[in-house]
Specification:
The chain has 467 residues and is α+β, with helices and mostly antiparallel strands. The chain has helices spanning 2-21, 26-37, 56-61, 77-80, 103-114, 141-158, 221-228, 250-253, 280-294, 303-311, 327-330, 373-377, 453-461, and strands spanning 165-169, 174-181, 184-188, 205-209, 212-215, 362-368, 394-397, 413-415, 440-441, 445-447. Strand 1 (165-169) and strand 2 form a beta hairpin. Helix 2 (26-37) packs across helix 5 and helix 6 packs across helix 13.
Length: 467
């Protein structure tokens, strides 16, 4: 009996040793780790750190040539960077992308390199989508109800004021101005005879819009960057990892962007310049963040509100008339912008005091973009709004610094496109940045009538659940 037991234990021990000694299978053990966590950032024309991990040749020779040194894991950056502390800026993958890797994964990478880093000939790696675990977040309907209560209370204090006003963002002490826009009816869209008109701009339809306030200028980096960059550990959805109801405020509970992969002004200027390249979701969340601080309900304008405010009582191609030769007095576009955006508010305003409605940066609206917009609203022309149901395309208006004059007309319409994220290395793509849309910004509106919490929630989250 003892002999049988000893033989059994010996057999198990030898089996365990055999398993432990088994050579790492690259295709089975290593490739899935790299494709899920590393290849998305280390591929393409501009890989992070100049390291490309798609083929054996590129992995061993790109960058400084130290990504993988067969037989020496401690000298191989593919291993040494994966075992850094989670707060180290050099950690791979970075914390914002789900790092650090589990110890089982780093141990496999180490063993693979120790064994000579064997990589099957001709095998090419392709990035896989990384499914991040879903976690509870404080940025939910209950938060919106708290912000709604604050807005109602603030409205009662102000006794339904309707004048234009200047306000200060409490957290950052940055000023912004809101212009009072009277409610009314207008003819939306362009007439058939308007030069360079496009089919999606009509047929012209009489539309009624309720009163609201609109940002005098496009949201600037001074206003937006403190929202975008916070030095706070966040999940990919922007929620705080350390959120604590006992010490954090309703403002802290609002999801904010994860750190950008590049300098988002792209060298075009920051102080006084329009913020750019954010997704519609990011613009929505900025509105929620600002609302939570000020006790005013802010959101993106609907297409109808935007065109109504842009026209400012006019019926011409532009708010200053039909002559595009006058555009240089009112907007920045291809002919005068010097291939970059310019500071807000330098050009003449429209008749209602709004600057840069024509050009500088095109501006997000709240609607789903549909080519047959006017057919969709013909039976509901009071405060029309095409409620979004898919991520693309969403509506933008106004034209930008790289556009020709026809795209800056009051009725010109455009839809967002997935190609605006083309250079984003993340999988799935970031919910916060459109790195290829450097003409894209936004301005805010505040309706006089306060909506329900459910309506607020939709405006602030219409692009969240479809990413």
């Amino acid at each position: 009996m003892k002999l049988t037991l000893c033989l059994s234990l010996t057999f198990l021990s030898l089996s365990a040793c055999a398993i432990s000694a088994a050579e790492v299978d690259f295709a089975k053990d290593i490739a899935p780790i790299l494709e899920t966590n590393c290849v998305s950032c280390h591929s393409g024309d501009e890989p992070d750190g100049d390291f490309t991990l798609t083929t054996k040749e590129l992995t061993f020779e790109s960058g400084s040539g130290e990504a993988v040194i067969p037989g020496s894991p401690e000298d191989s950056m593919l291993y040494s960077l994966t075992i850094l502390e989670k707060d180290d800026d050099m950690l791979m993958p970075p914390k914002r992308s789900g790092g650090p890797l589990p110890k089982e994964s780093t141990d496999l990478i180490k063993k693979w390199i120790e064994e000579g880093a064997k990589w099957p000939e001709g095998m090419e790696l392709k990035a896989r989508e990384k499914v991040m675990p879903k976690v509870a977040t404080a940025d939910d309907m209950e938060l919106v109800k708290k912000i709604h209560a604050k807005i109602v209370a603030q409205s009662e204090k102000e006794k339904k004021a309707t004048d234009s006003y200047k306000n200060t963002i409490p957290i950052t002490e940055v000023d912004y101005e809101m212009i009072a826009i009277p409610g009314g009816k207008f003819v939306m869209g362009s007439p058939e005879g308007e030069e360079l008109r496009r089919p999606e701009e009509g047929p012209q339809t009489s539309v009624e819009v309720s009163p609201f306030w609109m940002g005098k200028c496009e949201v600037t980096w001074d206003e937006y960057e403190p929202f975008m960059i916070t030095q706070v550990d966040r999940r990919k959805d922007g929620s705080r990892i350390d959120y604590d109801t006992t010490k954090h405020t309703i403002v802290d509970a609002v999801s904010q962007p994860t750190p950008p992969y590049t300098e988002m002004s792209f060298g075009m200027g920051q102080h006084g310049y329009p913020a750019i390249s954010m997704t519609q979701h990011a613009a929505n969340k900025y509105c929620q963040w600002l609302s939570a601080q000020t006790g005013h309900f802010y959101r993106l304008p609907t297409e109808a509100e935007w065109e109504y405010a842009c026209r400012a009582g006019t019926e011409t191609a532009y708010s200053f008339g039909d002559d595009p030769d006058k555009l240089k007095e009112f907007g920045w576009f291809y002919d005068n912008a010097n291939e970059k955006y310019q500071k807000v508010g330098l050009k003449k305003p429209n008749p209602w005091g709004l600057h840069d409605m024509h050009g500088n940066v095109m501006e997000w609206c709240a609607d789903q973009y549909v080519p047959d917009y006017f057919a969709k609203i013909k039976d509901s022309t009071k405060n029309p709004f095409i409620k979004p149901t898919t991520l693309y395309p969403r509506s933008v208006r106004g034209g930008g610094w790289d556009d020709d004059p026809d795209r800056l007309r009051s009725a010109a319409r455009r839809g967002s496109d997935a190609s605006w994220k083309q250079q984003d290395p993340q999988l799935p793509k970031s919910v916060w940045y459109h790195t290829n849309a450097q003409q894209l910004g936004f301005r805010i509106v505040r309706p006089v009538e306060i909506p329900t919490p459910e309506e607020m929630y939709f405006y602030w989250n219409s692009a969240k659940d479809v990413y």
